[in-house]
Amino acid sequence: MSTVETTGPVPGRADGSDAPPPPERTAETALSRTLQKIARGDLLVVVMSFVFAFLIGSVLIVIADQEVRASLVYFFDRPTDALTAIWQSVTQAYGAMFRGAIFDIPGYSRAAQSVRDAGGSGTYVLLPALSAGLRPLTETLTVATPLIIASAGMAVSFRAGLFNIGGTGQLIAGAMAAGYMGFTFDLPVVVHLLVCLIAGVLAGGIWGGIAGFLKARFGANEVISTIMLNWIATYLLFFALKTAAFTGTNQSQPTSPSVGDNAVLPLLLGSGFRLHAGLFLAAGAAVVLWWLMSRSTIGFHFRAVGSNPRAAQVAGISPARTAFLVLAVAGALVGLAGAVHVLGTEQRLTEGVAGSIGFDAITVALLGRSGPVGIVLAGLLFAGLSTGGRFMESNQGVPLDLVQVIQVLVVLFIAAPPLVRTLIGLRRIDHPGASTRLRGAGRGRTGGQKAAVASGAAATAAATSDAAASGTAGSEAATTGSGATGSGTSGATAADATGTSPPDPAGDGAAPAGERSEDRTDEQEEER
User: Fold this and answer.
1) With the CA atoms of 207, 234, 379 and 295 taken in that order, what torsion angle do they form, in degrees rounded to the nearest 10?
2) Which residues contact 236 (CB under 8 A, 6 or more apart)?
3) Fewest CB atoms within 10 A around its CB: which of 18, 147, 317, 339?
């Protein structure tokens, strides 16, 4: 009686096939790993977002320029005139933005030349020239100071899963409280300033706490409640500036008296600049945000509720109480921004004291990923675009609305990293290895089917050989054949249990029609 030995699966091969294993992938080089890290990182997205935003802004600047439009009329006769006009329009506009936001090179040169003409040299020339050249940067820092503080407050609520839209109302509340304490009372120098700042923090915290209480006690949506509180604070300011308590003797104009000298934030660079000590408070707000959300217990509660409120509640953290604390803390920081804005820059209350700081803080917080470093950089960016845009409008005649378009485009591109990567040809970075996994899955299924077919054929051949060697009657051979069929059935059952297709009963090694069509489907998927 002869036996046929079947070949088992090759050790180490999951699909049971005896094909040689694929060659091992070579280790990635350090350069390729670095390039992939850069492609997947946020820095590339941010840089390319600025590039795309300024490119679109350039197109808008060219369209808005009358000289460029006039040169395009005879473009085919003298194309160089149109191209020169386009280049000058774009470069002069962005050059004016740089001069108004960071460094005024012509102002530096004029100041240095005037000092040299007066007989000065050395540091007598350098210091006045630097003072004139860096004036735009000091204005950018001045505008960014309350914006960074307010954005830190917005980041607290965003990281806790609450979308706080009440920045304007909380800033107005803080500004009203700080301004009222500033022009009503006469206290010693340091005490008066501290009282005004604390009043602004408390007023902003109370105003934000109202929305937090409505959220915790009644489940009110914080988006709706904070928006409504914005309007309440706005019209409350309008009403207050029509009363004697906030206007004093000058009731003909809706402005308050100037805050006392003891309540004004001290200037850092003298009376020739507006940069004040609120800059240190802005840096302190970023540090407080980092410590609060990364190192404190209450910040851990904020982040836990923002990530998964139900899991936080199971862990013993009250989502309702946390929501109240989140909006109160966020309102306190935004109220501090209002106090700094009044005591450092405005120094009096007006109907437009809040400006667009409250809503810009939302954008800055989102743009900075609600992190301290990102908020500082985004705040400086928005402040630079604001100050540079005003200078660009006055110096080059470019509409200020185009600067706001550039701001919106920057936010749009940064908020959609897959869009940016698609535009620069890195679409596959967001879904790495998808096609490789698809091809690997197709190969795995095909290998399993081949193993099942080989196993069924070997079992059938073994049964036939045993029947021939025994020399029994045809009925006994039939019985053996039925046993082979049963063996094949059990093999099919085992194959089904392992997720593979049943073996071919014919024993010729050919897969059924269903399997062949599936193989073709896998091959088509691999080709795609």
Assistant:
1) 0
2) 172, 176
3) 18
Distance CA 90, CA 252 (A): 46
Tokens 């808005």 correspond to what residue? 64
What are the C-alpha distances in Å from 437 to residues 147, 401, 440, 499, 526? Answer: 47, 48, 5, 19, 10
Can you give the length of the chain in residues?
A: 528
CA distance 334 to 174: 8
Q: Which of 105, 501, 180, 176 is nearest to 334 (CA)?
A: 176
| pLDDT tens profile 243-281 | 888 987 666 778 899 999 999 999 999 888 999 999 999
The rounded distance, in Å, linking the Cα atoms of 248 and 257 is 7
Instruction: Output the six-digit token pair for 335.
Output: 């109220």
CA 15 remoteness from chain centre: 44
Contact 230, 165 (CB under 8 A): yes
In DSSP notation, 216-279 reads HHH---HHHHHHHHHHHHHHHHHHHTTSHHHHTT--SSS-PPPPPGGGSPPBSS-TT---BTHH
Cα separations (Å) of 223 from 161, 256, 299, 325?
12, 31, 21, 16
* Residue linked to tokens 């350098």: 126
* CA atoms within a 13 Å half-sphere pointing along the CA-CB vector of 91: 6
Assess contact for 339 and 201: CB atoms under 8 A. Answer: yes
Model confidence pLDDT, tens digit, residues 307-345: 999 999 999 999 999 999 999 999 999 999 999 999 999
- At residue 19, what is the residue type? A
Q: How far apart are CA 303 and CA 299, in angstroms?
A: 6
Torsion of CA 457, 459, 462, 466, to 10 degrees: -130
Beta-carbon neighbour count of residue 224 at 10 Å?
12
Place of tokens 């320029």: 65
Listed in sequence order, the residues at least 6 apart from 464 whose beta carbon sits closer than 8 Å to its beta carbon are: 481, 484
Q: DSSP letters along 110-173, please?
A: HHHHHHHHTT--THHHHHHHHHHHSHHHHHHHHHHHHHHHHHHHHHHHHHTT-----HHHHHHH
C-alpha 124/C-alpha 104 separation (Å) is: 19
Quote the CA–CA distance of 156 and 399 in Å, as a whole number: 35
pTM of the model: 0.74
For residue 186, count other CB atoms closer than 10 A to its CB.
10
Q: Which amino acid is at 479?
A: T
CA 420 to centroid of chain Cα atoms: 13
Task: Tell me which residue of 226, 227, 241 sits closest to 179, measured CA to CA.
Answer: 241
